[in-house]
Amino acid sequence: MPKLICIIEMDKEKGLVLTTEDKDGKILQTVRMDGEAITLEVKGDSATSTIVQKQDSVTVTCKSFVLKAETIEVTSTKTSSWKSDDTFALESKKAFTLTTDDALTQKAAKDATFSSDKAVTLKAAKKFSVEGDDVQVEALSKAVTLKAPSIKAEGTKDVAVEGAQVTVTAKAQLALKADGVSELKGGMVNIG
């Protein structure tokens, strides 16, 4: 085991300084209590980590921060911010809940993907909007169902409905109208 150099300094202006130095490992550990803050510092050849505790704040600066516990609870009475300059991951082995009592905004500068190995439900108590340069809705094995008191399909250029079999049924009134030419064409056409 390496020999350590331990120093205790007490000064009425600088406060209390505890120093432990491992010259072989080139590691210097320092505890400073200056009357305003308690500073813990571990300094080595490749990195330095510090914890600064003041009466109203605690600041941790380090290369790697690891927190392990059976239960973790974080509460903020005011603004909370979490930022990463690199990859950011949140993962849960069980249920994951994201809740806000105000507006929720999700934004991606590149592609965004939302997927589930089971069902996905999107629900809005009021207006629900989907917008994109090219919007596609596809059901791989079963039907696509649209249901509402009123459904309106409008294309500023054209509207195409295509299928092996197309059925249009009205329980009350059916109106087909064109301001230009109307064309009804088929191998066999039955009217009546």
Gross morphology is rod-shaped
* Main sheet: strand order: 1-2-3-4-5-6
Mean pLDDT: 93
The end-to-end span amounts to 102 Å
Number of helices: 0
Strand content: 15-25%
Q: How are helices and strands ordered from N to C?
A: EEEEEE
* C-alpha-based Rg, rounded: 34 Å
- Main sheet record: 6 strands, antiparallel
**Count of beta strands:** 6
Unreliable stretches (pLDDT < 50, length at least 5) are none
What report would you give on this structure?
- The chain has strands at 5-11, 15-22, 27-33, 38-43, 48-53, 58-61.
- The chain has a six-stranded antiparallel β-sheet with strand order 1-2-3-4-5-6, with no helix packed on it.
- The chain has 192 residues and is mainly beta.
- The chain is rod-shaped, with a radius of gyration of 34 Å.
Layout of secondary structure:
Layout: E1 5-11, E2 15-22, E3 27-33, E4 38-43, E5 48-53, E6 58-61
Antiparallel strand pairs: 1-2, 2-3, 3-4, 4-5, 5-6
